[in-house]
Write a structure and sequence with these properties.
The chain is mostly helical and 203 residues long. The chain has helices spanning 8-59, 61-64, 70-78, 119-202; strands at residues 82-92, 95-105. It has a two-stranded antiparallel ribbon with strand order 1-2.
Length: 203
């Protein structure tokens, strides 16, 4: 804590600082609330995304048993290759975060005579799963970035609420007392000096 100067200039500086902190604090508190709301939205989106994936898997059970061996799985997975993840940047409560748009897959080359017939259903289904999981990864990145900003904003709110504003108020109180005492003392000294002067004049 900086040493207090017991002057009118120091009093003005403390009052100006207090006014600044009290003016900015509501903005920070509002930002904190917005960030908390956005984090809840991310959690809801992640939960909805996971549910979509579960529903998709449930709808695919009819042909999932065709993944009879590891080699079949590997061959099929090689048919689904991501070429590009398309995102955009959004500003959420002052934080720039990525937002999912789509996934572009490499053109797949299927030998219609050698590939199993169920590949026609399996490959688009796998692409849907990749899209769902990619979207979830990006929402999780949003969540992490917003959580970081919330941590910093919360620290600033606490600093203003618990340290800076009380500190300014206490400094103003102490300086006011000091200046008041100094003024009272100067008035008393002035009266004493005036009385002595009158006594000298009367002699």
């Amino acid at each position: 804590m900086a040493k207090i100067k017991y002057t009118k200039m120091a009093l003005k500086q403390e009052r100006d600082s207090l006014a600044q902190y009290t003016r900015f604090l509501p903005t920070l508190q509002l930002k904190k609330q917005q960030l908390q709301l956005e984090m809840r939205k991310c959690q809801e989106k992640i939960a909805a995304n996971e549910e979509r994936e579960r529903e998709l898997f449930s709808s695919l059970t009819s042909w999932m048993r065709l993944f009879g061996n590891e080699e079949e799985c590997r061959v099929l997975a090689e048919k689904v290759k991501v070429e590009k993840v398309d995102t955009e940047v959004l500003n959420i409560a002052g934080v720039e975060v990525p937002s999912y748009r789509d996934v572009t897959f490499q053109e797949r080359e299927l030998d219609l005579f050698r590939s199993p017939l169920w590949y026609d259903d399996a490959i688009p289904a796998l692409e849907k799963i990749v899209r769902i999981r990619t979207e979830r990864e990006i929402i999780e990145k949003q969540y992490a970035l917003i959580a970081d900003e919330l941590r910093v904003t919360t620290q600033r709110v606490n600093l203003f609420e618990k340290v800076k504003i009380p500190e300014c108020r206490e400094n103003i109180r102490v300086i006011n007392i000091y200046l008041g005492d100094a003024f009272t003392g100067s008035v008393a000294r002035s009266k004493i000096a005036k009385k002595k002067l009158q006594e000298v004049e009367e002699i």
